[in-house]
Fold:
Amino acid sequence: MQSKLSDIELIEQTLTGNQAAYADLVKRHQRFVFTLALRFCKNREDAEEVAQDCFIKAYRSLNSFQRQSKFSTWLYSIVYTTAMTFLRKKRVDTDSIDDENMYIQLENQSSGLNNNLAENRSRSYYLNRAIEQLLPDDAAIITLFYMGEQSLEEIGQALGIDPNTVKVKLFRARQRLREKLEKNLKSEVKELI
Structure:
C-alpha cells in the first residue's frame, strides 16, 4: 500500500520514524541509482558500494531535503558526488572497454511483444555497451536524460552545473555515443561476414 504514496509522503513518514517508508523509497529508486553508479564505476562491486553509500547518505540528510526539486533529482546529485569521491579515492584502474562483465541488461520497456524481444535485447545490449565506453560524465548525462527522464534543469541541479552546459554536454555525449555505436556495430558486421 505504501508504494502508492508519493516520494514526499514517504519522506515525511520516514522523518517521523517509519523506516519501512524509507525502505519503500529505496526500492523505488534502487535500480536507477545502481545503474547510474555503474555508469561511473564501471564494475558491479564498486557500483553496489556507491549505491549503498548513497542511500545511507540520503537517509542521514533526509531532513535537509528542501523539496525545491524532485527527490530523485536530489538523490541523483548524491549519487554523482558519492561516485566522484569514490573514484578519486580509488584512483580508478583503467578497465578494458570490451570487458563483458560491465554489461547489464536493462528491462525491455519499449515493447511487450515476444517477437521483438530478441531484437530489443540486441539493441539494448549494443546501446549499453556503447554507453559503458563513454567517459563517466557523458554516461551519466545520457543515463539521466534518457533513462531517468530528467529535464536539463534537473540534470543541472543533480550535477551542479548550468542547464545550458548540460545541453551542450548532452549534445556532445550523443555524438560520442553515436561514434561508439557505429564502431561497435561495424565490428559486429565484420564478424558476421
